[in-house]
Amino acid sequence: LKEQTPTVTEATKLFLAKQEQRHLSEFTMRDYRRIVKQLDAEFPTQRLSEITSADLTRFIEKAGHVAGKRSRYIYVKAFVQFCAGKHNSHCNGSAWISPLVLQWQAPKTEAKEVAVYRFDQIIELLKAAKSENVLPHFVFRLFSMMRTEEMKRFTEIHPTITGHPLISIASKRISIGSPGLRLLKIWMEFSRCCSLRCRCASPKTVPRV
Description:
Largest sheet: 2 strands, antiparallel
Shape: elongated
Radius of gyration: 21 Å
Number of helices: 8
């Protein structure tokens, strides 16, 4: 019965407590706290039995770009599975919600042909980026090899290096994997000291990477 299932906010508290017991990284926990906060704001009074597939699809679609939707889907899926009884001792063997309620499907994307810049083109690119005061953005793109959507998600999480939840200057850690990561960390320290920003605000003269 609807009145017998927990509210979304009650369930998110239990879900978050479960994740904290797993001793996950601080960056993963920040993502979990973020999605819990968003779920609480979206469904402040609803019980789990009142949540529909359309509700969850609409919630995921609010993320905007595809990378953000995929990321939100991953965490929502973990929450739904918890509420369906996975590693949830509070359910007592009785699911609060069906795992089938999550029906969002990522749109199909086609891989684009990869183009490689020559060294002289990279130099010109960095010069143009510096003149537009968006050099950190393009250094990020060149050395981290982030895709466009990944970079959008990275800057939407936090627009500056200082205070970014995925960047720790003190521990020299950035939560992305890349062959150029060491060079990127060095650039991070320089950018932070110079108070440079990593967001690129659609410059007209800088070529797109």
